[in-house]
Amino acid sequence: MKAFIVRGLLIIMSVLILIQLWIFSSLVYWRSHDVETTMFMRWTYFSDFKPIQHEWRDYGDISDNFKHAIIAAEDAKFVDHHGFDWDGIEDALQRNLKKDKVVAGGSTISQQLAKNLFFYNRRSFIRKGQETIATTMMERMWTKQRILEVYMNSVEFGDHIYGVEAAAQHYFGKSAKSLTAEQAAFLAAILPNPKYYQDHRDDRKLNYRKGLILKYMRSTRIPD
What we know:
By secondary structure, the chain is mostly helical. It has helices at residues 2-30, 39-48, 64-74, 86-99, 109-118, 125-141, 144-154, 164-172, 181-189, 194-198, 204-216, and strands at residues 53-54, 156-158, 161-162. Helix 3 packs across helix 11.
């Protein structure tokens, strides 16, 4: 029985080590290559085999309006932290405890990107631990500009819509480079629930969030 448990633990450890090696090698490759697909995109595609709308755009081919909007909406301290916003995490924990349910996540852009690239939505302590390691590796191996570039090209904006270029084309019929401040704020505002807001563009909460993003995006800093 003891030998069986030890063997099981060794198998689990081996699998976890292999996952970390896969993440490390992927981050090395993606440091200089476009990210054409993510784990989230693959899960979405295999759920119904409907084509994914996604088109990569380099950092300089994305409107600065959107860069400011995404940071204002998702991670105001992005350029200053090393992957984790501890004040934001503490605030989220306090809000969740107060409501006795999960109402806030506190995840940074780096954490969200690590989850999108390598994992999926099911919550577990093992997945969260792997996500933390992946985030730490990413912050050490990539520049802030690269992290933001990949995030903007990977995040979900609606049903089978991934990346800011596909979103700009779908919602406004224009390129990501041409997004106005108001259009950028709208795209950033739908991120908490993109599939719902895709069909409810006049939602009061959405418009309130969009207004806040417009207000604060001018004071955000983006990677050079």
